[in-house]
């Protein structure tokens, strides 16, 4: 295959997670008797621009279909993060009623609702009909389509250029990175700013966060690789904010080459940290497979011993990352009998691959499990606060990444 960014041939394996179903392809009751498609989940690194990427991709229509089940607004900590995000943009870039903000992959309006409340004109671009409709019900102008260079031309012709373009956890989700980044250049006003947030590859490598690998994520981004992609399309990165969200993310600010914005110290600091960890060489990606396998062995040992002792184990949070983790480990309902989640669209279905049933949170009070495995470990602090009531029956809360942790509720 070719690198999604620089088109160089890419063959160096970072980690091979064998095969897995699409992480958000939950099984409805009427589909229980049908076979699921499994697809390769092998991660490679380009030895020229060092973009980390999946070897094989699914059709984007298979992944982000009209019934896509991830609604950002059901993730309360992430909504609070989005509100702070908007406040920062308004303050730092002087946004007001004359400004225009565009967000690609705007989901159900979880972020643009805060832009709209400030009286700032905004546009969401979202390919999934289910989430786009939820945004439009909030009164947010939304185009139901994938963002690309072609769509950017259309949006500019109809609505004008953007003062701020936002891309939250989307750059990693696009199979054609060049078309997406080129579209940002088309969409931006001459002094406009593109702000993109994504999980930082440095944390994936350092903490072996292999469960962030799934078919929605075509790429795994470092500042090194992202800078090369933006420079190729006439833009440059001038600022980087490190965020704790999603296990450690970068919020990257870009402008057109013609802009007079100075490059800030934060850019050089993050770039230096990546180079110190050798993310600009193949050496930085060695040893990951062995550590991933050890993580799975430790978790499976815990599950087998817990179940052999007669304990009940339930998962919390039917997150995509959890599905990658459970499928690579080979977990089935006899080891984890249920999972609870706040999203109604997931409840009453089965997790893809593992076929673990999903319920609402009331199941915990009824079942009183001895162990609750927090699958979206990146929100573990918030979830532990929410699950404090499970201490009534001495439940223990479990996370598996970066290392197995079992603590009282």
Could you describe the 3D structure shown?
By secondary structure, the chain is α/β, with parallel strands linked by helices. The chain has two domains: 72-285, Rossmann fold, CATH 3.40.50; 288-408, NAD(P)-binding Rossmann-like Domain (Rossmann fold). Helix content is 32%, strand content 22%. Helix 5 runs parallel beside helix 6 (177-187). It is globular and about 65 Å long. The protein starts with 11 loop residues before the first strand and ends with a strand.
List keywords for this structure.
409 residues; alpha/beta; Rossmann fold; 2 domains; 7-stranded mixed β-sheet; 6-stranded mixed β-sheet; 13 helices; 17 strands
CATH architectural designation of the largest domain: 3-Layer(aba) Sandwich
Shape: globular
> Structural class per helix/strand content?
alpha/beta
What about the largest sheet? 7 strands, mixed
Name given to the CATH homologous superfamily of the largest domain: Vaccinia Virus protein VP39
Mean pLDDT: 94
User: Which CATH top level class of the largest domain fits?
Assistant: Alpha Beta
Uncertain stretches: none
Q: How many domains in all?
A: 2
Number of helices: 13
The total of beta strands comes to 17
Helix percentage = 25-40%
In which order are the strands of the major sheet placed?
6-5-4-7-8-11-10
What is the CATH topology descriptor of the largest domain? Rossmann fold
Distance between the termini: 47 Å
Q: How much strand?
A: 15-25%
Succession of helices and strands: EEEHHEHEHEHEHEHEHEEHHEHEEHEHEE
Structural Rg: 21 Å
């Amino acid at each position: 295959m070719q690198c999604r960014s620089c088109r160089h041939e890419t063959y160096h394996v970072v980690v091979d997670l064998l095969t897995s179903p699409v992480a958000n392809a939950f099984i409805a009751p009427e589909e229980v008797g049908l076979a699921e498609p499994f697809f390769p989940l092998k991660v490679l690194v380009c030895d020229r621009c060092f973009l980390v990427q999946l070897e094989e991709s699914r059709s984007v229509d298979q992944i982000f279909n009209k019934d896509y089940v991830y609604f950002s607004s059901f993730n309360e900590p992430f909504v609070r993060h989005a509100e702070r995000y908007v406040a920062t943009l308004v303050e730092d870039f002087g946004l007001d009623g004359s400004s225009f903000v565009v967000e690609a992959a705007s989901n159900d309006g979880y972020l643009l609702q805060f832009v709209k409340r400030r009286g700032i004109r905004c546009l969401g671009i979202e390919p999934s009909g289910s989430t786009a409709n939820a945004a439009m019900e909030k009164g947010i102008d939304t185009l139901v389509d994938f963002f690309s260079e072609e769509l950017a031309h259309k949006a500019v012709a109809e609505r004008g250029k953007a003062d701020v373009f936002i891309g939250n956890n989307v750059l990693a989700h696009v199979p054609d990175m060049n078309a997406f980044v080129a579209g940002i250049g088309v969409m931006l006003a001459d002094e406009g700013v593109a702000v993109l947030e994504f999980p930082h590859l440095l944390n994936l490598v350092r903490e072996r966060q292999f469960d962030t690998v799934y078919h929605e994520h075509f790429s795994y981004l470092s500042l090194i690789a992202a800078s090369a992609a933006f420079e190729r399309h006439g833009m440059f990165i001038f600022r980087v904010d490190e965020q704790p969200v999603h296990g450690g993310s970068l919020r990257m600010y870009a402008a057109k080459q013609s802009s007079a914005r100075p490059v800030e110290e934060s850019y050089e600091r993050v770039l230096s940290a990546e180079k110190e960890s050798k993310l600009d060489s193949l050496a930085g990606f060695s040893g990951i497979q062995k550590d991933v396998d050890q993580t799975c062995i430790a978790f499976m040992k815990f599950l087998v011993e817990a179940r052999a002792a007669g304990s009940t184990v339930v998962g919390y949070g039917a997150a995509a990352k959890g599905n990658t983790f459970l499928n690579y480990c080979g977990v089935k309902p006899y080891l984890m009998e249920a999972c609870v989640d706040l999203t109604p669209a997931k409840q009453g279905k089965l997790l893809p691959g593992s076929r673990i049933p999903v319920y609402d949170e009331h199941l915990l009070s009824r079942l009183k499990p001895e162990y609750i495995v927090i699958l979206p470990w990146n929100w573990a602090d918030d979830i532990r606060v929410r699950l404090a009531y499970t201490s009534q029956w001495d439940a223990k809360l479990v996370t598996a990444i970066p290392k197995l942790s079992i603590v009282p509720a």
